[in-house]
Amino acid sequence: MFLTGREKDIIIRGGLNIHPQELESAVAGLPGVRKGGVAVFPASDLRSGTERLVVLAETRLSEPGPRSELIQTITALAATLLGAPADDVVLAPPHSVLKTSSGKIRRAACRELYEQGRLGTTQRAPWRQWLALALEAAAAQARSTRRSAALWAWGLWAWGVFVALSTVAWFAVMLLPSLGLRRRAAWTLARLATRLISLPVQVQGLDRLPAQRACIVVANHASYLDAILLGAMLPPDFSFVAKRELADAALIGPALRRLGAVFVERFDAAQGVDDTRTLQARVRAGESLAFFPEGTFGRASGLQPFKLGAFVVAAETATPLVPVTLNGTRSLLRDESWLPRRQSVQVLIGPPITPAGKGWEHALELRDAARKAIGLGLTETLPRALTAFQFRSHAAASAGTLSVDGLTARKHRSPAAVQSVHRLRCCPRGAPDGAGDQVMQKPMVPFDGSRSALRALEHALAELHGRADAQVHVLNVRSPPLHTFPSKLVSPDLIDQELRREGLALLEQADAMARAAGIGCVRHVRIGHPGEEIAACAAEHGCDAIIMGTRGMSAAAGLLLGSVATKVVHLAPVPVTLVR
Questions:
Q1: Which segments of 16-125 does DSSP mark as H helices, in order?
Q2: pLDDT at 305 over 90
Q3: Are the CB atoms for 502 and 455 separated by under 8 Å?
Q4: Could you give the 3-state DSSP secondary structure of residue 500?
């Protein structure tokens, strides 16, 4: 057996297999041919359906006579060795034959240059190649800088317009005497803002809004700017429903009250009943309302679970429900971002949905129909189901001790090489030193599908990775309904069943992440105040830690402002880790 060469280098010509190495060695020994500067390769011949034999030889000969004699010699040599002459002999200057860094001839690359008619052109000097690469990199960086500068310029201009017009709008709302004038002024300034920042907004279906009677608009919630854009596109006679926390906010609260906004309580069930009666009374008086039934928004695309307040009011008052889809607002100003990005916005107003009757079941039907209509209009890419999980390292680069309101807290900061995850681990008063750093086997993770909750769950799974018999408990707390029905229409058991079904559906994502990480997962759904239920659930199931997100708020700010996390820290009998 004789080794003749590589299979990929074989040239098929007239049914014969030709190995180029023998001819290359013979041609390289001819006078006038540069040693190691010969390549024999095939070239496609469309007329004969076979391959042409091409010999590429480097030489320094420049006179026509010697070059012609060399070509004849190479042709004759090919006929002697292969039984047939070469179809084409190309004499090229030195360094025309392409080679690898180890000195192997790159026949395929030579063939490509031959078929493109570029053989014979010498490669540029290394310094010229480096210069070309540097210029290309500089041009790419300049384009990136130009795009970044344009993004920043538009974002800052948008902020300037917003600050200026919101100041004018605030004084107009606070000083104008009638509600109609105040709403008209706010509506006009909001539309003016979209024109000044050249924001492309497309509205479809305004004619679907009932003209002679009140209606209830429900829209998806994706950005801080949703209320402003929706208010600018809808007629100015709509009243927006907002969470009660905004009523106490400086500047914003008084302005919203002057615009006729309705504030609802999310956690106090008794107050929620009164709020629902107030909403029903205003709708029966002919007032149109606008809701964001998700109640909140996050960075991830898609729809979150709908709260039932808007649908209960529509069912009880037999008021048409109008679904509205907002596209593009999430990219315009995403959650946890402060710089807006210019983005086309689309407002799709769907056909009204008429309630089939009163009661809980009909409210659920309205909710499902509205969610389907809004989802059909969404153009943003929905998140794919999780099939894998990447663990993040949370090694602490620095540690300190912080005392807040009688609690001992240990603060950890992840290294710069790892995605930034800030943790504030709190232990109950009197806990021994190091209690917050004990090995966890059974943590509790409150989970509502938000980006903050996802980070907390990822941190918990990373902590449990590789620990035998480890188990994570995920909890979704459903707020009590903001309404009530006579017991003859619906039983409390039916309400609890529906709320728990929503919670379990939301926890499917957490369960999939835990399974992908190879860690057992137990799902819990409870109804009540989040802080109290989280602490009670962890105690009942013997969890040894609680890991939860902070909604993007810094740990110190959360403790000072009195968040759900603070409530959990005060009530929980186990260490609490806050992940931001």
A1: 20-28, 64-82, 107-115
A2: no
A3: no
A4: helix
Give CA–CA dist 257/533, Å, rounded. Answer: 32
Distance CA 30, CA 264 (A): 95
- 295: left (phi > 0), else alpha (psi -120 to 50), else beta? left
Residue-wise pLDDT tens digits, 159-168: 999 999 999 9
- Rounded to an integer, what distance in angstroms lies between the CA atom of residue 64 and that of residue 209? 87
Residues whose CB falls within 8 Å of the CB of residue 408, separated by 6 or more in sequence, listed in order:
401, 402, 426, 427, 429, 431, 436
Q: 108 has which bridge partners?
A: none
User: What does each C-alpha distance from 354 to 205, 234, 349, 369, 565 come to in angstroms?
Assistant: 17, 20, 15, 10, 41
The dihedral over CA atoms of 459, 463, 466, 467, expressed in degrees to the nearest 10, equals -130
φ, ψ of residue 3 in degrees (nearest 5): -80, 120
Say how far apart CA 169 and CA 163 lie, in whole Å: 10
Q: In this structure, what token pair is assigned to residue 70? A: 């060399």
Per-residue pLDDT tens digits for 204-224: 999 999 888 899 999 999 998
Measured between alpha carbons, how far is 574 from 580 in angstroms, rounded to an integer?
19
pTM for the model stands at 0.55
**Listed residue (199, 190, 191) closest to 166, CA to CA:** 190
